[in-house]
Amino acid sequence: MKILVTGATGKVGSRFVPRLLQRGHSVHILLRDSKKSEYLKNMGAEVIIGDLSHPPSLPAAVENKDAVVHLAAFFRGATDQQAKEVNLDGAAALANAALDANVKRFVFASTSRIYGPGHNRPASENDPAQPIGAYPATKFAAEKALEEICARQKMELSIFRLAFVYGENDPHIPEIFPFLSQWHPARRFHMVHHVDVGQALLRGLSGNAAGIFNVADDAPITIGELRRFYRQNDPPEIDDSTLINPWEGILNTSKIRESLGFRPIYPSFYSALDAGTL
């Protein structure tokens, strides 16, 4: 299968592209600067120079591709306008180009953060979105735009709402501690290992995977457990309000299990720890 991947040098993409190559796919990666991709080129990926913020560069990137896996996003450090230009406008431009090129499948990595607070139970795919902040808001807006675009000519669209992604030497967990400084140590949230992100995305490429799917492991973890493991102290003043809704940040994963046969290879942080894959 000929596949275009965006965000190939990011946290998810840099670990997913090798999995595609190992399975014998013809992988093309969209980059603004080819210098950042030497290790992926050495594995067999082909670089296409283009920019999500420059729509005229996209038709050539999607030409003769069977599928697009859209992983690129602007997250921390982005202004609201930058987040919109990449996460929403860029996604829509890429999907429109793919549709014009008769690409059959479009796989989109979204975020579980689109749910926000207030569900009082694990969030499921049919729950209303309540995104707080530019990143989840623009990702949810991109979901809606992609659904409309892909429906025009029945391009199969798979949207994966990822829990907090970790593993395979990703520094993501230590990076978040400053942003969670007031979280009560008993506050839980859902995570998912890179290996399981990869198997979810591969299911999206296999066909008959249209729809929106939560992707998470089986065992939400508390911030206190992570702090202890990474030798981080609990803050001296703890905000009990973070425990008002104990289900915030927890996902219902029954749909991906029942529809796509997904089972986490690493069902908990501790199983990944035991396997030496943190």
Protein architecture, described:
The chain is α/β, with parallel strands linked by helices and 278 residues long. It has one domain: Rossmann fold. The chain contains ten helices and eleven strands. It has helices at 13-22, 38-43, 58-62, 80-100, 134-151, 172-176, 194-205, 223-229, 254-260, 269-275, and strands at 2-6, 26-31, 46-49, 67-70, 105-111, 156-162, 164-166, 188-189, 191-193, 211-215, 221-222. Helix 1 packs across helix 7 and helix 4 (80-100) packs parallel to helix 5. The longest helix has 21 residues, at 80-100. The mean pLDDT is 94.
List descriptors.
globular; Rossmann fold; 278 residues; two-stranded parallel sheet; alpha/beta; 10 helices; 11 strands
Short synopsis of the structure:
The chain has 278 residues and is α/β, with parallel strands linked by helices. Helices cover 35% and strands 17% of the residues.
Strand content: 15-25%
Secondary-structure content class: alpha/beta
CATH architectural label: 3-Layer(aba) Sandwich
Strand count, sense and barrel status of the largest sheet are: 7 strands, parallel
Using the CA coordinates, give the radius of gyration.
18 Å
Terminal CA distance reads 30 Å
**Envelope shape:** globular
